[in-house]
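Pipeline run #58 for the internal structure catalog. This entry was flagged by the ingest filter as a single-chain record with no existing model, so it goes straight to prediction. Upstream metadata was stripped on purpose; only the residue string is passed forward. Reviewer on rotation: M.T. Logging verbosity set to normal.
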Amino acid sequence: MSNSPPFDAGIPVLTEVFQEPPAAAQVDWEALERRLFEHLMENLHGQIESAVERAMQQAMGEIRQGVRAAVREIIAREVGHG
């Protein structure tokens, strides 16, 4: 038999090599929802801004047409009575 000690301190033992993975952390659903919403808003901001701008331009065009038609009608009525 050999006189070497049964345990060599230079060789790691199994518990030093293999460590149990940490337990899965609980998901903070509110924080996840908030981050997801912020990310979506950042990505969609340009599209939303463009869509609002187009809608405003269309509404302004329709309002101008309505005002012009009303003015023409009033002028025609007044010229016809005069």
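catalog note: Residues 56-82 form one domain.
catalog note: The chain has a mean pLDDT of 85.
status: ready for reviewer M.T.
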